[in-house]
Design a protein that fits this description.
Blueprint lengths: L3 H21 L25 E6 L6 H17 L2 E6 L3 H13 L4 E5 L3 H13 L4 E4 L3 H7 L3 E4 L2 H14 L5 E5 L5 H14 L2 E5 L5 H14 L5 E4 L2 H13 L5 E5 L3 H9 L2 E6 L2 H18 L9 E2 L3 E3 L4 H10 L3
Parallel strand pairs: 1-2, 1-3, 3-4, 4-5, 5-11, 6-7, 6-8, 8-9, 9-10
Antiparallel strand pairs: 10-12
Helix pairs in contact: 1-11, 2-11, 3-4, 6-7, 8-9, 10-12
């Protein structure tokens, strides 16, 4: 068993990071509570903890690779067995959860882009006595489904923050690009931007067809020259938006959610104004810490409210600090 003294040190570091995030980010929605979040767990007696992480990311996706890196590093640091699975199809993701339950894992970490498709599988895990932590998406359904905590970014608040920044930059009309149909978090981002920015139109594209996505963004900019800002909800789409604006001879400024090498370079050269950073490495790392503490010391986190990892904002003022972390796969 991993020594609790050392574990407490790791947890203290994690908690310090959460305090900093809480100081710099928006206030969490305190309207939700969960009785399950206050229930203590029985001490682990079966050897090293085994955790399954099941996300809706696709293999090779730059964002989800960072989540995976965080979960696997936490497993190494805490002597926790971590198996990472990803499938963008909600039905397949539910089956991955079912398989983990059948294997009697000691904990589950699940992203919920499509909560309804995963509800039964997650609730079955809870009924089987497996503690579940949700990450990234589905914050509003986490406690309802019986998860002990949610770790992520409140998407509506993040959208509001992005809209405020674009408005402060003097932009008048915003195109918000949704790249994944059925992902509630993306709609929440655009809705948040509408609340703070005002004049927002949305465009649906398919991230699986990046050439077509670029063409659709170019077409939208050509048909409405009054659009002077584009908000991408994914770092890969952001690169396509930058290219589309150039092809359309549009002066629209691009901003995006999330980081990758292309976004880092684009912020440096000025072709992307800023990136909304939800620090997804924490979304992989922290749930492993929390499950370890829950199983071995009965600890809970959040008090029924989400643990916020964002939004942070990366622009020219701090890109040189963040860039090395993005390069090594931790931002």
């Amino acid at each position: 068993m991993f020594p609790l003294k050392k574990l407490a040190g790791v947890a203290a570091i994690a908690a310090a990071g959460l305090v900093l995030a809480a100081c710099s980010g928006p206030t969490a929605d305190n309207s939700k509570s969960s009785s399950s979040s206050t229930a203590a767990a029985a001490p682990s007696t079966g050897g090293p903890l085994k955790v399954a992480v099941v996300t809706h990311g696709s293999a090779g996706d730059a964002f989800w690779n960072v989540v995976k890196n965080g979960a696997e590093q936490a497993g190494k640091d805490l002597n926790v067995g971590v198996d990472y699975f990803a499938d963008g199809d909600p039905g397949n993701q539910a089956r991955l959860i079912d398989n983990a339950v059948a294997q009697k894992v000691g904990g589950l970490v699940v992203s919920m882009a499509n909560p309804q498709a995963l509800q039964t599988s997650i609730q079955n895990a809870v009924k089987a006595g497996i503690p579940v932590i949700t990450i990234n998406s589905g914050e509003d359904f986490s406690a309802q489904f019986g998860a002990i905590a949610h770790v992520g970014q409140s998407e509506g608040l993040a959208g509001q923050g992005a809209g405020q920044r674009l408005k402060a930059a003097g932009k008048i009309k915003l195109l918000c690009v949704i790249h994944e149909a059925g992902n509630i978090g993306q709609n929440q981002r655009c809705d948040g931007a509408k609340q703070s920015f005002g004049n927002v139109t949305t465009l649906q594209v398919d991230i699986a067809n990046p050439t077509d996505a670029q063409a659709r963004i170019r077409g939208a900019l050509q048909s409405d020259p009054s659009i002077d800002a584009v908000l991408a909800l994914n770092s890969q789409v952001a690169a396509r938006a930058v290219a589309a604006a150039k092809e359309a001879s549009s002066k629209a400024q691009v901003a995006t959610f999330d980081l990758n090498a292309d976004v880092v370079a684009a912020i440096k050269d000025g072709s992307i104004l800023f990136a909304v950073d939800q620090q997804q490495y924490e979304q992989g790392y922290l749930p492993i810490v929390f499950l370890k503490l829950y199983k071995e010391n009965g600890n809970t986190i959040g008090g029924g409210h989400p643990v916020q990892t964002g939004p942070g904002f990366v622009d020219k003022t701090n890109i040189d600090t963040v860039a090395p972390y993005a390069q090594r796969g931790t931002r």
